[in-house]
Amino acid sequence: MGNRLVTLGTALWSLAEATVFFIVPDVLLSFIAQVSLKRALLAVLAAVAGAVAGGALLHAFASADPHAAQALLLNVPGISPELVARVAGLIEDGLLSGMVMGSLSGAPYKVFVVDAALAGVPLWTLVLVSLPARMLRFALAALASWLIFNRLLGHLALRMRRWMLAGFWLVFYAGYFAAMGW
To answer: Is the pTM of this model over 0.85?
Structure first.
């Protein structure tokens, strides 16, 4: 039962982040990886499914009402007109390469989804591109957490490792939102 709830929670978190939530599912994935890499990788699959589902919903919304979708994006903490323009530049070299570069540089997936919808990218193309782009990012987050907190710092108590990871995410988001002018 516990694993199913974690998996469902990860999928829902990822769906929310793909649409309007502003904290990445990597946070949850990194905590899961502190306990079990296998559980974390299963959660990665759930996160990918949630992200693709959220991306499909947002794509449909943006296709139906582009102005409302753009307004929605700009009301999400950490998203600015400058970030939207940066994502448009990343996509110029291709949607997949743009998504991969964006996911590794802090550009939210939801911005790519809206930009793709506005550019007329079909939903099936978005889904096919999203699968490897989201998988790479989420798997790297889980693997990095597992390596750092299980292998390098595994001698510390789990409680201490959790506090350290929580501190990392607090500092990360403080810096991210400061850099975004929020």
So the answer is: yes
